[in-house]
C-alpha cells in the first residue's frame, strides 16, 4: 500500500500540481489570455476526450458491459441524487437563488472525470478497458444527464441571472450533440452490435487522445488564474460535499452492491475528483456564482491531495 500511495503522489498528484502551477503563473503573467483557456477546454471536450473515450470503450465486449451494469446504475442514481442534493441544500443553508443553486450543483455535485479522469487513473491502474469504462460511464452521466439538468434549472430560474442570456435550445438535445456525449454512446452501440474497429485505426485516435490529460490540466490552471480566490463557509461546504460526502456515499453503495474491488477504487477516486471544469465554464458564461465556483474548484484541487490517498486506502481496505 505504501508503494501505491507513493506512486499516486509522484505519478499523479505532483505532475498535475506542477502543470497547473505553470499554467496558473502563465495566466497571471498574461502569457496566456482567459479566452485561450476556453480554446484549450474546447480542444479537450470536443476532440481529445471523445477520442480517448471512444478508443477505450470499443475494445470492450458485450459481456464486459453487462458485467458493469451495476457500475452504470450506481453512477446514474448516485450522481443525479447528489447533484439535486447540492442544488437544494445550497439554497436552504446559504439562501441562494435557483440559478445559483444550479451552478453550484454543476460544480460541487459533478466530478471533473472527463478532464482529469485519465490523468489520475491511468498511472495508477493502467490504460486497460476497465479504466476506460469507469471514466466513460461517469463521464456520460455527467455530460449527458447532470449538465442538461443543470442548464435546465439555470434557464428555468427567475430573473436573478444578472441579465445573462438564457439558452433557447433544449438542454438535453444540445448535450447529445456534443462529441464528449455521443462518442462514448456510439462506442457502446458498436460493442453491443459486435462491430469491431480495426486496430489499424488505433494510432489515429491515440494521437489526439494523448493530448487529453495534459491539455486538460493546463487549462484548469489557466481557469484558476482568471478569477480571484476567496475562502468562506460556503466554499468549505462545497469542498466537503465534493471531497468527502460524494466519495463516501459511492464507497458505501459500491460495498453494499458488492462492486468489484478494483472498479470500486477507480469509481470512488473518480467521483472524489475536483469539481467539473464545465461547471466553472458555464458559471462564467452566465455570470452566475462565478466567485464561489472558481474558489470551490481551487480549494478542492488542493484538498484532493489529501483526500485521494485516503479514499483509495479506504476503498482498497474495505473491498478486500
Name its key features.
320 residues; mainly alpha; Na+/H+ antiporter like fold
CATH class: Mainly Alpha
Task: Please give the CATH architecture.
Answer: Up-down Bundle
| Mean pLDDT across residues | 82
Strand content: under 5%
Q: Any idea what the radius of gyration is?
A: 18 Å
Helix fraction bin: over 70%
Encode the helix/strand succession as letters: HHHHHHHHHHHHHHH
What count of structural domains?
1
- Name the overall outline: globular
Low-confidence runs of at least 5 consecutive residues: 160-166
Structural class: mainly alpha
Biggest sheet layout: none
Q: What report would you give on this structure?
A:
The chain contains 15 helices and no strands. By secondary structure, the protein is mainly α. It has a single domain, classed as Na+/H+ antiporter like fold. The longest helix is centred in the last third of the chain and has 30 residues. The chain is globular and about 50 Å long. About 2% of the residues have low confidence.
